[in-house]
Amino acid sequence: MKWIIAREVAYPGIDQGVERLQKALEGIGPEVSVRLEKADAGIKVCLKEGQALVCAAEPVGLWRGLGILAGALERNESVCEFQQETPFRTRGIMYDCSRNSVPTVATVEKLLVKAALMGFNAFMLYTEDVYEVEEFPAFGKYRGRYSKEELRTIDAIAASLGIELIPCIQTLAHLERFFRWPNTYALQDTDSVCLVGEEETYRFIEAMIRSISGCVRSKRIHLGLDEAHGLGLGRKLDRDGYIPKTELMKEHVARVCEICKRYGLHPMMWGDMMFRMSIPGGGYYQDDIQLTDKARGLFPKEMDVIYWDYYHNNEEFYQHYLEQHEAMGVPALFAGGVCSWIGMLPNLVKSWTSCHAGLSAARKMRVQEVFTCAWKDNGGEAPPGADLLGFAMFAENCWSEDCENDAEHFRNARILTGADYEGFYEVGSVDELLDGLSLQGLEPPNPQKYFLWQDILLGQYDQEASLADFASVYAEKAERLEEFLRSGRYEPDARYHLELAAKLCRVLERKVDIGVRLKQAYDDGDADTLRAIQEELTGELYGRLTALYTVHREAWHHFYKPFGWEVADIKYGGLFTRLRTSALRLGQYLDGEIACIEELEEPRLSSSGDSSGERSLCHSNCYVNISTTSLL
Is the pTM value of this prediction over 0.70? Predict the structure, then answer.
């Protein structure tokens, strides 16, 4: 496509953004002259006789309009008339960089370009300790932290696209990776929570705020302040005795807000602590919650509070919680999520349902600012590829009140994500082993993770693996993914996630029930089957696991900094070694060198620890607990 900028009416200073979008859309469709103009509201796209007009009320509206236009041209449409508005003033993405996988600057630039094409105008990199703080040299050390120069580069890229880069840090809890250093003891209440009321704590927090806010042009900052489990119950309790959490939280938030005020910053925070201090047991979600007066006035009026909820499937729940915020005098922002924290592959079945319900409620409650979060819990195993379809789902629900989760509505998916809707939705449906499984409970079952990492001999999830013929299900999923790959309709970056999903399904095709078959053959004294399984462990399964490891390693080093991959090496190394050890012990048993295999003598329990009762596929997301019941 060829751009002709109407400079007298278009937004000033967007030349770099035009260049980035032109590069991203290069080679799509025939040559068309495009005029960009400023509009009073929404976006409008007109294409006729080789001439196109894109009007928008903000720069990212222009980019969304160009993406819509590019999609029409890719489909060889000669005429396009499109108009759209959104009630949400701020539409943002939060991307987790703190769970080992730290995106390179080049990867962040690609994410920002795709976000612009979707119509997002805000972006946060969630950084617990992965940014530079000069006064604390151990902060983020060996973790792939961003330098100040890298953050300034990312900020400049975002600004060129009309996207606000908002710092997103932690100023109370979730600091366990920094607190591992012995010289941080004076800052600690517990091993992850700051010591509230300690002056050294506020010098540390001020250094964090000063460092990261100095790298961006935004005057907004996200301070975290969530999930402060154990607040006041560690060294604070020993030193000062018991003080109610509400008092500690109120004191701390006020102190941190004062720091922000000195630097001219407008703070925001997650809002869960307002609920946790009103719910017995410190939970967050309770159907009939009615906040008490002790939650009123907890946060200063200058603090923006975000209601985060990535889990519920019904609009009514979101609306009730938004109403509870308002009842406390806290007009909430809203954050939904792409279900990307459960393993190598996101669950887009869950992502669609939760974001559709959440944004419908936010619309009705006239929420002005909304975000979608891509968390990477327990090691950041996944590349960013299929997350993009989750972002697109959120964006479409922002811009369209009646969108549907189908290929027709997402026919522009290849422009927005690098892959057709069907391909990435297949990636995001790998955990849908049974119809409706992804929508059971708040956290969707994630068998992709525990069937991969569980130990062959211990069989901790074998009761679940024997529920159905999951090997055949994984084989069918692998075949469909491989067929998508053969179609050649995917950008190189998108292929990584499709290939990873296909290779994972091929591993699980062999591994999901190998423990079940092994235990049955051992109990039956079936030497022939045991010998066949022994060969499978070091032959076909080992080869498939090697192929998965190779693709995963290539994907990681393509998108992320190298720091953190050592953890994946440890995980894979353990799996490879246990396959060899299991094969060795089988051989020793079959050759009469040992009288029994003690691990296989053990009756199998369900993963919940029960010996009887109804079995079901569960949610389990901790590698250590999946791989062993011993200490690691």
Answer: yes
